[in-house]
Each structure stands twice: as C-alpha cells, then as structure tokens.
Specification:
There is one protein chain. The chain has about 210 residues and is an alpha/beta fold. The chain has helices at about 65-80, 100-110, 160, 180-195, 205-210; strands at about 5-10, 20-30, 60-65, 85-90, 110-115, 130, 145-150, 165-175, 200. It has a single domain, classed as Aldolase class I (TIM Barrel, Alpha-Beta Barrel). It is built from 5 helices and 9 strands, in the order E-E-E-H-E-H-E-E-E-H-E-H-E-H. The protein is globular, with a radius of gyration of 17 Å.
C-alpha cells in the first residue's frame, strides 16, 4: 500500500496528556468528514478544523510507496538515537490510510506510535496511544483508547454519554475559531465546563502559544 502524506516534521506534542514530548508528526492527506466536494468547509460535518490536510504540498509531503519508505522518513526526521522515539499519526483522518503494516514498520524502528483520529473508523491494531477527538454529527465507532479530547464548545456533543466510553484521560480543549475575542470566550467556556465536570481536564494548544508547527 502507498500513503498520501500532507507533511512530516519534528516538533513537540502541543496538546493533550502527552504535551511537551518530542515527537515526529506524520500528517496524512484527506478526511472523511470533509471530502472537498462540499461548497466550503462550513457545509462539512466538522466545521472548525484548523488544519490544512488537503493535498501533499507540505514539508516532506509526498506519496510514499510503502510502509518501509514512510517509516524510514519518520526515523530520519527523528535523527540520531532511539531513546523515547515517538510519532504522532494525524490528519485529516489518519485511519483512512493507516494499517497494520505501517504500525509494524514504525515499531521496528523503535517508535512508540500515537494516533489522533475523529473516531469514525476503527483504529488499526498495535497503536500504542489512541487519541479520539469526536465531532458533533458524526458516528464514533472507536470508543476506547488512551485519550478522549473534546473540542469545546461544540453544540450537539453529548459529553455525559462520552464519559461512559473507555478512555484513560478525558480532555476538554477550547475551540480555536481564528477570532481573538471568540477564542477568549471559548477558553472561559471550556474552563467552566471542567469546573462543573471534574472527570475532564483542560487541554490547551501549547504549540500555538509557543509558535511551534
């Protein structure tokens, strides 16, 4: 199988329970909640995406011929040393392309393998850290993993129902609207949610605060 990749880069994990950790981000092209056929993103199920996942024009973006070639690129970007190697597969929606062969190839190169997904497609076997970020209006089938990250506020999301899912960490993340005043309101709404719902913790997008990719 070949893989359409938007970009791959070395950075720090900016959000969630693994925030601050050195990581290679492997962003796949394409998303099943926004096919590109809609008139614009406002007509898609996920209306607040802040990530460019269209095409393969990002840094190290390309169509990689097989799992070994893609895993070799990830390893090269990590650089020397194999201690605590960590890769985050994201998108778009990574589970449109991620398979057992790629997970195995990354494991062979010493990586702990994480994935950030909308949860509408079951996760491939062998992934070490599964982070699901549900989108209102979609049907989530992957209801277990290490981390549930709910962007907030998100009308139509049933957080009480989600608490019954099998995750180790339940996180609320303020929505980045692109508008400073609205973002301030979203942070206050997310903080108020956590104050009222102690099972959840606040997650911030530290990479944006720090100016990291």
């Amino acid at each position: 199988m070949n893989y359409a990749v938007k970009e791959i880069f070395l950075t720090l994990q900016g959000e969630g329970a693994q925030a601050g950790r050195r990581a290679v981000f492997l962003r796949f092209a394409g998303c099943n909640l926004w096919s590109g056929l809609e008139k614009d993103r406002a007509s898609a199920i996920c209306q607040f995406c802040d990530t460019d996942f269209v095409g393969m024009g990002g840094i190290n973006g390309a169509r990689y011929r097989d799992a070994a070639a893609l895993a070799d690129k990830v390893a090269a970007l990590w650089g020397d040393g194999t201690d605590r190697r960590y890769v985050v597969m994201t998108g778009g929606e990574p589970m449109l392309q991620v398979d057992a062969a790629l997970v195995a190839a990354l494991h062979m190169r010493g990586f702990e393998v994480a994935m950030e997904s909308n949860g509408t497609i079951a996760a491939a076997a062998g992934i070490d850290w599964i982070c699901i970020s549900p989108k209102a209006g979609s049907h989530v089938v992957q209801r277990s993993g290490q981390e549930l990250k709910l962007v907030w506020p998100q009308p139509g999301s049933d957080a009480v129902m989600m608490e019954r899912w099998d995750f180790a960490h339940f996180l609320i993340q303020p929505m980045d609207s692109g508008d400073e005043s609205l973002n301030e309101a979203n942070v206050k709404a997310a903080a108020a949610f956590v104050q009222a719902n102690p099972k959840w913790r606040l997650s911030l997008q530290n990479h944006k605060i720090l100016g990291l990719p």
